[in-house]
Specification:
With 544 residues, the protein is α+β, with helices and mostly antiparallel strands. A 6-stranded mixed β-sheet has the order 1-13-12-9-10-11, with helices on both faces. α2 crosses α3 and α10 crosses α13.
Length: 544
């Protein structure tokens, strides 16, 4: 057995600083025509600006940005140019981060495969010496050697792009672009794909401006729900309102966070808007977003004062258990099932519904924090990391780690709960070893995931995961049975009997106090050592 790795301390996750809400737009055919034309024109400008930004690479500096914005301003307007250049820079930076992540992943895969190729066939792993297992067969070894060569070629290409500062970005998405070459497999026609492609490449986004009317001068939404946008200069002939603006006929109504949004626009605080077209459903949506001031992170001891609701995340359900401030499970475990099959919208709705029920249970328990594992399955689909079982790798890759954690942090912050992230090391193993059997009853069977939730909660509270030993039996004979020992040999000082205190064993006065405290053995009591000694030597007769 290798040495267990060091477990990181739990921490309170900061609340999100950004807010996003979304609603559907009810548009007339005339409104759809104008938005399609404006979005297509601005999308072409965004594509040209992205090409300029990608060609500059790492040589882009603060002086190049005004030149790009000045070029776009002459063809649209100053505000549209600012939104386009900022969105372009964010897209390039996101592609750069993805490139760095791919480079790190390729290096890790190459290192693992090289280490396993150097081991004999069928060799077992030696965790104590840090040696991986060898490949099972000669054919697998040969296939992995070919994969190593392919990964090295990919890494060389990525390293060259990284050094040159070039990234590969597709406006509209690479997945949709590749779908053009296999329309028959997807069951699409060329006109349907073209509609999706044009909708994905439209640009209808405007950054907020504090101090302007209703927080945005480019895309404006009034408190009465009237939506209007500033048209680019070449499309000014489409305006139906003064100052080159187009007012849509339909009214905007936000259902989620409507009060907070209305407070911001009435105070002329910045709100960013984005108009999107879903070509598959034939719907239009408006997204509003803004930033909140960063809230201070509360101390860990304060959020755990009323206990914690511990959650173990799985691929098909959440296992939750309420623990008090001392780490004792309270009540019965709860399980919140969700189905991650289907499309992205279905998965998002399933996760949101499960988290809503979870937070309702946390409110009924009266806790102030929810503890969850700080999971990251970046290497979940790696065969070198998780073995040859395709089913297990697929199971790990289906875990909604990032999506569930981000949504939980956002929803918990709105309801006044803090999220405590704990190290996931050994929670399932130690929970099943120390808590699954003791908490099971004939009427209630505790699963491994329920026991893991208890381990997660105890780690968040800062108490050991191991249970205390049972009290000693009435005697120490073999028929009475043995104690249930949960602690190892190093914990005997905490689990054994109390040490004997020095001094006489008397209950009347403390040791060393009283007139007869040090003269107990000399008194004539029944069974005293003095009496026994005198009888053994033969006491002298008192008769005359």
């Amino acid at each position: 057995m290798g040495t267990p790795r060091q477990v990181a301390a739990p921490l309170v996750v900061p609340a999100p600083a950004g807010v996003t809400i979304r609603t559907r737009l009810r548009l007339t055919p005339a409104d759809e025509t104008v938005l399609t034309e404006v979005g297509g024109f601005l999308g072409s400008l965004a594509s040209q600006d992205l090409a300029v930004r990608a060609r500059s690479g790492t040589a882009h500096d603060a002086d190049s940005w005004p030149d790009r914005k000045r070029l776009l301003t002459a063809r649209s307007s100053s505000r549209w140019a600012g939104s386009i250049t900022r969105a372009t820079h964010d897209q390039w930076a996101s592609a750069r981060r993805a490139q760095a992540a791919e480079r790190a992943w390729l290096r890790g895969e190459i290192t693992r495969i090289r280490a396993r190729l150097s081991r004999p066939l069928g060799a077992k792993a030696d965790k104590r010496c840090g040696l991986p297992r060898g490949y099972a067969t000669r054919s697998e070894w040969h296939g992995k050697s070919r994969r190593l060569s392919a990964l090295q070629d990919r890494l060389a290409a990525v390293e060259a792009d990284w050094a040159a500062g070039s990234v590969h970005v597709v406006r509209g998405g690479k997945r949709l672009a590749r779908l053009r070459h296999r329309l028959g497999d997807a069951g699409l026609g060329a006109p349907d794909w073209r509609k999706r492609w044009q909708a994905a490449r439209m640009f209808l986004a405007a950054d907020g401006e504090s101090g302007k009317r209703f927080g945005n001068e480019t895309i404006r939404v009034t408190d009465a729900g009237q939506l209007s946008l500033k048209l680019p200069r070449p499309l000014a002939h489409l305006a139906n309102a003064p100052h080159g603006r187009y007012v849509l006929d339909g009214a905007v109504a936000f259902r989620h966070r409507a009060g907070e949004w209305r407070d911001r626009i009435t105070a002329d605080r910045a709100v960013a808007y984005r108009i999107q077209h879903d070509a598959v459903r034939g719907r239009w949506y408006l997204t509003a977003s803004w930033q909140r001031p960063a809230a201070p992170v509360p101390p860990l001891r304060a959020v755990l004062a009323r206990g914690v609701l511990a959650v173990d995340m799985n691929d098909d359900h959440l296992a939750a258990w309420h623990l008090d401030a001392h780490g004792n499970p309270v009540g019965a475990p709860r399980r919140y099932v969700y189905d991650l099959s289907g499309g992205a919208s279905h998965r998002d709705a399933q996760i949101r519904h499960a988290l809503t029920r979870l937070l309702h249970h946390a409110r009924r328990c009266g806790v102030g924090a929810v503890a969850i594992e700080d999971l990251d399955f970046a290497d979940g689909t790696s065969r070198e990391q998780h073995g040859r079982s395709k089913q297990f790798r697929r199971l790990v890759s289906r875990f909604p780690t990032a999506g569930l954690r981000g949504r939980l942090v956002s929803m918990a912050a709105d309801r006044g709960f803090a999220i405590v992230a704990v190290d996931p090391a050994y929670t399932s193993q130690w929970g099943a070893r120390h808590w699954q059997k003791p908490l099971s009853t004939p009427a209630r069977e505790i699963t491994r995931h329920d026991a893991a939730a208890v381990a997660i909660g105890r780690r968040a509270l800062g108490v050991p995961i191991r249970r205390r030993t049972a009290p000693p039996p009435r005697d120490r004979r073999d028929p009475a049975g043995h104690r249930t020992v949960q602690a190892g040999p190093e914990g005997r000082a905490h689990e054994g009997p109390r040490p004997r205190l020095p001094g006489p064993r008397t209950r009347s006065v403390p040791p060393g106090r009283g007139a007869n405290a040090g003269d107990q053995r000399a008194q004539d009591h029944s069974g005293c050592a003095v009496e026994q000694a005198s009888r053994s030597r033969g006491a002298p007769s008192l008769d005359p």
